[in-house]
Amino acid sequence: MRVVSGEYGGRRLKSLPGDNTRPTTDKVKESIFNRIGPFFDGGKVLDLFAGSGGLAIEAISRGCQHAVCVDKSYQAISVIKENIAITKEPDKFTVIKGDANRVLERLAKEGQSFDYLFLDPPYAQQEIVVQIEKMLSLGLVKAEALLICETDKSVALPDDISGLSLWKRQNYGGTEVVIYER
Question: How far is the C-alpha of 146 from the C-alpha of 117, rounded, in Å?
């Protein structure tokens, strides 16, 4: 696993050992970022189920200004911090250990909102639609934001979610990426 492009392009990232997580493959990551904009001029990122932090690091590498990485696993948080260290710009990242739903409420209380929101939960525990609706109601989603959701292809995310429209849907083997825009 590596950073595909941008300022940190080519740098190797660590992943979590074992079968409990499945990091986004370089192929899927490259395709996602080619679709949402290969490079950015600022913007704030939320990586809600960060795992290794690869999506957030890729976004910062390509020009986003700050990323918040959230995961509930101590092991994931450790790997995220190690991967952020390879950027040599830790001030561009905030790492939060906690349950996704509770962290969303905390971020809302802090007055935060995001331009790019990545949701790649454990496939068996995904509640993407509920979490998107929560993010919208809490004011975490900026106008014209993109929400990038990665699921098992057997999960059928709807075309319409209140306040969002489907922008792109793409299958990559057993993975489906659905992108919504506000």
Answer: 6
| φ, ψ at 141 (rounded to 5°) | -105, 115
Q: Global pTM?
A: 0.92
**Domains annotated on the chain, with CATH:** 26-181 (3.40.50.150)
- Which tokens sit at 19? 């079968």
In angstroms, the CA 180 to CA 182 distance is 7
Closest C-alpha to 46, from 68, 65, 63, 66: 68
Provide the 10 A C-beta neighbour count for residue 67.
26
What are the start-end ranges of the H helices in 86-178? 100-109, 128-137
* Residue 57: strand, helix, or coil: helix
Confidence band of 138 (pLDDT split at 50, 70, 90) = very high
Q: How far is Cα 96 from Cα 118, in angstroms, rounded to an integer?
A: 15
Q: How far from 119 is each of 62, 87, 88, 155, CA to CA, in Å?
A: 19, 22, 25, 14
Vertex 81: Cα angle to 46 and 103 (nearest 5): 35
User: Over the stretch 148-161, which tens digit does the pLDDT of each residue have?
Assistant: 999 888 888 899 88
